[in-house]
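SEVERITY: medium
COMPONENT: batch folding queue
REPORTER: lab tech (J.R.)

DESCRIPTION
The queue accepted two submissions in a row. Attaching both inputs and their returned structure tokens so the on-call engineer can compare them side by side.

ATTACHMENT 1
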Amino acid sequence: MSSADPAPQLSIIIPMLNEAAGIEAALVPLQSLRAQHLSTQFEVIVVDGGSGDDSVRIATPLADRVLSSPPGRALQMNLGAQHASAPMLLFLHADTQLPEGSVEQIPQALIHHAWGRFDIKLSGRSRWLPVVSWMMNQRSRLTGIATGDQGIFVRAASFKAVGGFPEQPLMEDIELSKRLKKRSSPACLRAQVVSSGRRWDEFGAWKTIRLMWRLRYRYWRGVSATQLAKEYRDAR
């Protein structure tokens, strides 16, 4: 954004690590949104975790800022939030695209809520992905817990007040949700972000479902995120 542009109302923060194959597809639609002269002005902040491919080169002309961070999604998103200038934050994964009208829906949702998330639609080859998407949305609606894949948005003041994402290697989205739930229930928007189902395609839908539920259960039982991250890497 140039110095003559209005101050952004929303900061879109995208953590990135070796996403050269897909980061352009994630950022170009955001540039197209900006060209529509929406009433909600936004900035795009990409936080790279030390990519060894062309991710930074590709992202630089398509973002307002590209920051460098040690690897770790929580670390990267917290750094992006520290450099954000808007009163609202949206954390968007590099393989996730926003639905039409989403930038305008966020300010409305945050009038009555401190935070929220979108429904999700997983894209990929597996015929089970619509079922997985439905399960994720229903679980989130029932529990008030959001996943990072769903595009978590939050008032910047609320994010700061709860200490941001816990700097742990896994389940940082669950922990942030638990902290924010103490301030308000989430706004659960029906509009669907479209996120890559590549992990379900690569490792099998039901195998991935069982793995994620097992990890979540063990986290609920008190197993450390560091141990669970190791189990997640080993399983994959």
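ATTACHMENT 2
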Amino acid sequence: MMKNESKTLYIPLYGKALVSRKGIILRDKKAEEIWSEEVFSLGGKSKSKWLAYFMGMRAAVFDEWLSKKLSEKPESLVLHIGCGLDSRIERVNAPFGKWFDIDLPEVSEIRRKYYSETEKYKILGASASETGWIGSLPDAENVFVVLEGISMYLSETAIKNLFAALAEKFPEAEIIMDVYTSKAVKASKFKNPINDVGASALFGVDDPLLFESGKIRFSGEICMTPEEKINELSGFEKAFFKKMFAGKFAKSLYKIHTFKI
């Protein structure tokens, strides 16, 4: 049986499928295909078009970061931890050394229905809260680690342990991770769409320096809602989204941080 935290994967999947069908923000035919095949009922805020736009923008920002990094270091290993049913492997148009899409075994089982492994691409059923699997990964001089939509379901200790295990395994790595702030965690008790699928336990990060240790260093913050993506909306939708999802208050709830090892 799929855990409630795993069910949250259907929220961004729906969002990416919706914006792709509209031809805005993110082109993701795979999300359209999978959403049409998967039998999962979303309701309430989970099917909000505003949330869909936000999910699409978040994915696009992560894609652009990874594409840029891979263009600079094309032989790198990519670890997409908490991948859900995301098709980043198809959206990112850049060479890579090897790519592992990693999620819980129950999610990886569904993923295998839609994605085929190759010599360079693997699907791994493993938990981000446990680090034993990291030792079994192939050696690599450089690694890019994507943690999208997962940190809020982990604990501070789990994230620190994950970073430490990555630092022990690899000589160099760069990590991109979105986080809730503590303000967002408090607000989530009342207005978070994840409540629609039964997920509730959340972790918030106010200071990214919390994760600095040894050779792990905070390296920056990235805008979640870039102007060029907002400009793909028009009229009332553009004005409303900009005010509600890209204003000062929204930016105090949700952030993207990067780290270097």
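NOTES FROM REPORTER
The CA atoms of residues 117 and 256 lie 29 Å apart.
No errors were logged for either attachment.
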